[in-house]
Amino acid sequence: MAFPDPALPARVRIHEVGPRDGLQNEAAAVPVEIKAEFIRRLAATGLDTVEATSFVHPRWVPQLGDAERLMELLAQAGLPAGLRLPVLVPNRRGLERALALGVREVAVFGSVTESFARANLNRSVDESLAIFEPVVARAKEAGMRVRGYLSMCFGDPWEGAVPVARVAGAGRRLLDLGCDELSLGDTIGVATPGHVGALLTALGEAGVDAARTAVHFHDTYGQALANTLTALRHGVTTVDASAGGLGGCPYAKSATGNLATEDLVWMLHGLGIETGVDLGRLTATSVWMAAHLGRPSPSRTVRALAGTPSHQES
Amino acid sequence: MAFPDPALPARVRIHEVGPRDGLQNEAAAVPVEIKAEFIRRLAATGLDTVEATSFVHPRWVPQLGDAERLMELLAQAGLPAGLRLPVLVPNRRGLERALALGVREVAVFGSVTESFARANLNRSVDESLAIFEPVVARAKEAGMRVRGYLSMCFGDPWEGAVPVARVAGAGRRLLDLGCDELSLGDTIGVATPGHVGALLTALGEAGVDAARTAVHFHDTYGQALANTLTALRHGVTTVDASAGGLGGCPYAKSATGNLATEDLVWMLHGLGIETGVDLGRLTATSVWMAAHLGRPSPSRTVRALAGTPSHQES
């Protein structure tokens, strides 16, 4: 039974990040055949966007050192024709590797804060943008769609709360470079709904349309879904999520898991918002992946649906 | 850093249910001295309402068979003068036991659906109300404050989705019997934000003021905080929550945990909403209780704060 709210969008596009953002944090690398099968199953649930991998140097993220082989396997997997399979590219070299494999959509990854830019990317915020500029230009020239990730949009472990004006400025610059879409990351999961509203308002004032803005929440403090609901009220229609809540280690002291796609779909379908996703198949996919990883899914919806029949969907 | 929203209340009263709703589900009974210490620590965090126990017959809930002894211990515990310590009373006999111990506030517990009334209370909905009538009357006569719980307000495992008009009618009847406040329970955790809005609108149309309505969400599908945010937008200012997310077994297949008080407080303080609660002390209390129970707290905020410094509160 669905209860639509006219203040919310009729349809939401889910940008599934489990295979990339989830699996890049696994201590033990997942075999490339399992990754390809995971993506095949995710596509079969009706998801129309699955971020497949990252063309980062294997020295930095050895878990994704199989990016070429994965894309070859996916090309033979008989995936749905309209499926979007973006990949992350950290620099020009990564972009060329992706282009050589026929990738149609890429994402670049920047930080809003100097501390995280230094710690994670080993460069300043301005240096990052300078590196992105030719990457984005070349990708657009090749007819690709380009997403710009911004991390630490709400809080930073070293700098504390991040001013919304600074995030709005960085977002505006990524769009000016040619990015088609922004993804606002709450990397350490500290955002609350009022902060989400304030940031989206500031972005709007900087000329960034909510229709070009995705949100990427982590459930570290349990706020991801309440924050998502607030973003939808501000006109956002693209939400990043990770099947089964993959990403980080949810049972570690400092949980950093992504919003679980299943928890998101449960809310959206309850609100009568279309996603195109079959929740039963998605849950089965996450249960399958959890068995492979040898630990239960942190998604509450996965745990509930895997144990009992769904009361909402019947 | 707080981001207030003028559409939300300035202050929320948290009705802490951990000692009763949480501990009644523990397989092994918790020693009464630990319960008393738990309540003492909860009160010291600034919570102004802590539901202490239930005067149900020990045959049904043996975990709470120590209700008399607990109240005696609490009377000697030097609790803050204004602290509210409601107890659940299932019938006239329970009420008399509570009155004899000087309890000032009680709650009665009804179901909206016939199936759950039969399964949990072994009587029909109308029979429950008939039993409550003299209980509420006697409690009011004795100058007590009375809360009326309604369970299965959104979905029922046997009956599926529950019509909002039926819940509104049951709520209206409990107030007509003399209850001061309603608590709307999503016992199986299936509610989504649109459903919450629809129910609160129906209650308003039945003459039930949101100011007299509390919400009681379970996080079975991860929806509790998004639902709470929606309830606040509809004028609700009392929210039930359980310290550390106690209640049910969050690691079992069908998780049925209560909304964790810490996750709620993180959101409310981020929105600039006063609670009077010290989040650090509350987290420490839940860590202490989790150590006693021998398993980690399912609250994401507890896990995050217990492992790393708080970025929001600094």
From TrEMBL, chains A, B:
InterPro entries per UniProt: Aldolase_TIM (IPR013785), HMGL (IPR043594), PYR_CT (IPR000891)
Keywords: Lyase, Metal-binding
Protein name in UniProt: Hydroxymethylglutaryl-CoA lyase
SUPFAM superfamilies, alphabetized: Aldolase (SSF51569)
A Pfam family recorded for this sequence: HMGL-like
GO MF entry, a single one: lyase activity
Organism: Streptomyces zingiberis
Family: Belongs to the HMG-CoA lyase family.
Domain Pyruvate carboxyltransferase: 12-283
